[in-house]
Specification:
6-stranded mixed beta sheet; binds orotidine-5'-monophosphate; alpha/beta; Rossmann fold; 213 residues
Length: 213
């Protein structure tokens, strides 16, 4: 595991973003863990988070023209990533976001920031069934841009509608590459080496057996 991945998991645990217990997901599955990105709620959290997204992006070696943060949760994530790419990797990339409600005065439209043009990289927190990402796909297409890739914080590595992972299904159907800061397996590796968290391993393994892809 890379240093930024360890740092990310530690921040998520210390902020209660990553919790163990019993949680009903949007899919109806009952999961032994939950990731709530909204808990990264201070300036320092956001700076660390942006740095982790930027590291993962640079590691993946993906080229793109514009970072896109889908409303609402993706907005601070794309902003923090753009700032970290500039301050830590000397890459000054344009970024933009959408608003959910259309504005008919002032500058109009539902996009704010840089023009949504060229190869788009979407920044978001989690993809489970891929519902949210498909809405962004439509918006990107409407604007004549090319949806190239997405980066998320956590890849839960779960089955989608069939036997393949939801991520693989979304990658195939939308024709994009999806990368993540950490995966379910990274998380498992981390908790295996943590005396306090070890107790959650059986439930995590059981869940992976049932829903893992
Ligand atoms: P999709 O739009 O189906 O891809 O699901 C993404 C959503 O799952 C997120 O926006 C959350 O509402 C929710 N979610 C989490 O945020 N964290 C998790 O660990 C699991 C879920 C989930 O419900 O699957």
């Amino acid at each position: 595991m890379q240093e930024y991945q360890r740092k990310f998991i530690e921040l998520a645990l210390s902020k209660g973003v990553l919790k163990f217990g019993s949680f009903v997901l949007k899919s109806g599955r009952t999961s032994p863990y939950f990731f709530n990105a909204g808990g990264f709620n201070t300036g320092e959290d956001l700076a660390t988070l942006g740095s982790c997204y930027a590291h993962a992006l640079v590691d993946a070696g993906i080229s793109f023209d514009v970072l896109f943060g889908p409303a609402y949760k993706g907005i601070p994530l794309a902003c923090a990533t753009a700032m970290a790419l500039s301050s830590e990797h000397n890459r000054n990339v344009p970024w933009c976001f959408n608003r959910k409600e259309k504005k008919d005065h002032g500058e109009g439209g539902n996009l704010v920031g840089a023009p949504l043009k060229g190869d788009i990289l979407l920044v978001d927190d989690v993809i489970t069934a891929g519902t949210a990402i498909r809405e962004s796909e439509a918006l990107i297409k409407e604007n004549g841009a090319h949806f190239k890739a997405a980066i998320i914080a956590l890849n839960r590595m779960e089955k989608g509608k069939g036997e393949k992972s939801a991520i693989a299904e979304a990658e195939e159907q939308i024709g994009i590459k999806i990368i993540s800061i950490v995966t379910f397996d990274d998380l498992l590796k981390y908790i295996e080496n943590d005396d306090k968290l070890k107790e959650h391993i059986p439930a995590m393994l059981k869940y992976r057996k049932q829903y893992g892809a």
